[in-house]
Amino acid sequence: MSSDKKVLVLGASKHSYRYSYLATMRLLENGYPVHLLGTTGGEIMERPIIKDFPLENSIHTVTMYLSRRNQREYEDRLLELGPKRIIFNPGAENFGLSERAEKSGIEVLDACTLVMLAAGTF
């Protein structure tokens, strides 16, 4: 499957044992254009892990791999980015941000990106 729907992995990690890394690999394997944002930098498959939000507002999906506490500094910018949906992966659930996102017209899912990709429901 190939897609023009850009995905932002928020909480991306260059460490292969992290779920954000595995999800990035699966997204790339499925042809999704991926932007990576993380706190430690690095790269995955020659794609840089940036430390600031992308300036473009054409992100379709944000897949969240940060804990609620670590999301705080990104919440307002995330809503300004205006993605079509946010996927809160296990451990990243955030009722307050979910509620704000839904009020802004953003689809919110408490789900697992890896499972969604495996099931063809991403």
Notes on the protein architecture:
The protein has 122 residues and is an alpha/beta fold. The chain has one domain (6-114): Rossmann fold (3-Layer(aba) Sandwich). It contains five helices and seven strands; from the N terminus they run βαββββααβαβα. Strands 3-4-2-1-5-6-7 form a seven-stranded mixed sheet, sandwiched between helices. The radius of gyration is 13 Å and the shape is globular. The termini are close together.
The third-level CATH topology is: Rossmann fold
What value does the Rg take, in angstroms?
13 Å
- Supply the number of structural domains: 1
Q: What share of the residues does DSSP label as strand, in percent?
A: 15-25%
What is the subunit organization of this protein?
A: single chain
Order of helices and strands: EHEEEEHHEHEH
Give the uncertain stretches in residue-range form: none
Provide the CATH superfamily.
Answer: NAD(P)-binding Rossmann-like Domain
* Fraction of residues in H or I helices: 25-40%
Q: Regarding CATH, which class? A: Alpha Beta
Per CATH, the architecture is: 3-Layer(aba) Sandwich
Structure, briefly:
This protein has five helices and seven strands.
What is this structure's SSE topology?
Blueprint: E1 6-10, H1 19-29, E2 34-37, E3 43-44, E4 47-50, E5 59-64, H2 68-71, H3 75-81, E6 85-88, H4 95-103, E7 107-110, H5 113-119
Parallel strand pairs: 1-2, 1-5, 2-4, 5-6, 6-7
Antiparallel strand pairs: 3-4
Kindly list the characteristics that best describe this protein.
about 120 residues; alpha/beta; Rossmann fold; 7-stranded mixed sheet; 5 helices; globular
